[in-house]
Specification:
Blueprint (H helix, E strand, L loop, with lengths): L1 H8 L4 H7 L4 H5 L3 H10 L3 H4 L6 H14 L1 H17 L2 H33 L5 H33 L8 H24 L15 H7 L4 H17 L5 H8 L5 H21 L1 H11 L1 H12 L2 H4 L6 H29 L5 H27 L5 H23 L9 E4 L2 E4 L10
Antiparallel strand pairs: 1-2
Helix pairs in contact: 1-9, 1-10, 4-8, 4-19, 6-8, 6-10, 7-8, 7-10, 8-19, 9-10, 9-14, 9-15, 9-18, 11-12, 12-18, 12-19, 12-20, 14-18, 15-16, 15-18, 16-18, 16-20, 19-20
Length: 429
């Protein structure tokens, strides 16, 4: 849970740092997708570093420590932001911030494939769905509380509160990033205390060309094709929900707009909290592919819900449903990755897959931006949201190729037989 404290107090406020540095709206909009794509390129080194770094446990803890250290230059950027804003060209400010954020994301993304492989070897397949379901509920709760705490601190520092009204916003951001870095240090410590998997096999390197050949021919390849297509379809609209909320919802004044925006975000995270445990139970009972059908069908109408009504009650219901649909889909895709990628190949395959996911998301966001144009109105948003919903529906055709193709095979998890959705360690292609 310390990781989500870091996310709620630090990671989610990186765009705010970009604003404090005086960057343009376009530059602020790229503060997440561009550094994440660059970090995904760095991530390709992950399978080559696991064993030289001493195994999965040490490597994962080391990458978490790397991410904690990156908060030091981010804190310095916060403190220097008034001087940088007045003395340094905007392009150079953007380059410096993008570099720092890329280093930040590189720590997290380097460790992600190895962590997935480690957890898949540590936890028996029969309890994985419920374990991740309950874990996700706790993580989302901690994230929501951290976000609310961070928002409250910034509101106090901006002069809207009674306690910290004399503290500049950039100083409060530095304090928040310091707390986030400390939380990540604690997270790295506990990761270093994980049990090392006995006789854990070294990662098998899968060449990119061989992985591309699998996309339409093998079960794991078809699963990845579906997830890549759905990622692009979701990102046609996903990055634009916040601008739509901030600009298109009719309110009396900016203070009311801020309150409505905060309430809708809280409703979204509430939806993300209530869905994962139910989804985990569903996966355990019927398998990951049938559960993925339910989650994917739920995702299809999400962009259209915003166009039905401007009623605050309706928008809250839409946000709860959106959060529940996304949380269910995320858990299903995580289980799909563990179920359909060979144990030895996970670190290599998932590193390449995460790079492709970032590219698909960025491509979807760019296409959505082209649909919206420079000064989008309600009709432009309706067009982008409609195209996203249609694309999501089209992805269901790819999911058909996974149904009935061995989704409930008998598998082996580190020598332990299991029935149902598990980890296919040595499945024939």
């Amino acid at each position: 849970m310390l990781y989500t404290v870091m996310v709620g107090l630090g990671q989610e406020f990186l765009p705010k740092l970009a604003v404090e540095l005086g960057l343009s709206d376009a530059a602020v909009g790229l503060i997440v997708p561009l550094p994440m794509l660059l970090a995904a390129v760095v991530q390709q080194a992950s399978p080559f570093l696991v064993m030289p770094m001493g195994g999965y446990r040490r490597f994962v803890a080391w990458t978490a420590g790397w991410q904690a250290v990156t908060f030091v230059p981010l804190v310095l950027l916060c403190l220097a932001s008034p001087w940088l804003k007045s003395s340094v060209e905007p392009e150079l400010r953007a380059v410096v911030l993008y570099l720092m954020v890329t280093l930040f994301w590189s720590g997290a993304m380097l460790g992600a494939p190895a962590w997935m492989a480690q957890v898949g070897m540590m936890i028996p397949a029969r309890i994985l769905p419920r374990y991740f379901g309950r874990r996700t509920v706790l993580l989302n709760l901690t994230l929501l509380l951290s976000l609310l705490g961070g928002g409250w601190l910034l509101r106090q520092a901006s002069g809207s509160g009674a306690w910290l009204g004399q503290m500049p916003v950039h100083v409060m951001l530095a304090v928040m990033f310091t707390l986030a870095g400390i939380a990540r240090v604690g997270s790295a410590y506990y990761l270093s205390k994980y049990s090392e998997v006995p006789d854990a096999p070294p990662p098998t390197i899968v060449p990119p060309g061989r992985l591309i050949e699998r996309l339409g021919r093998t079960h794991d390849g078809r699963a990845m094709t579906f997830m890549l297509a759905m990622q692009a379809a979701m990102w046609l609209s996903f990055p634009f929900f916040s601008p739509y909320m901030l600009r298109q919802i009719p309110v009396a004044d900016e203070q009311e707009r801020t309150m409505v925006f905060g309430g809708l975000l809280a409703a979204f995270f509430f939806g993300k909290m209530i869905a994962p445990e139910l989804t985990g139970r569903l996966i355990s009972r019927v398998g990951v592919i049938p559960a993925s059908w339910i989650a994917s069908v739920m995702l299809v109408p999400v962009p259209l819900l915003w166009l039905v009504s401007d009623s605050l009650v309706w928008l809250i219901v839409a946000q709860v449903f959106s959060g529940a649909a996304l949380a269910s889909y995320e858990l299903c895709t995580m289980m799909m990755q563990l179920a359909h990628v060979r144990e030895r190949e996970r670190a290599s395959v998932l590193a390449q897959f995460f790079l492709a996911i970032q590219a698909a998301g960025l491509g979807g966001a760019m296409a959505g931006g082209m649909l919206l144009g420079g000064s989008p109105g309600r009709d432009d948003y309706a067009a982008a949201f409609g195209v996203s919903a249609a694309a999501r529906a089209g992805c269901l055709l790819l999911l058909l190729r996974l149904s009935g193709s061995g989704s409930r095979r008998r598998v082996m998890v580190r020598g332990e037989p299991s029935t149902g959705e598990g980890i296919a360690s040595e499945r024939r292609r």
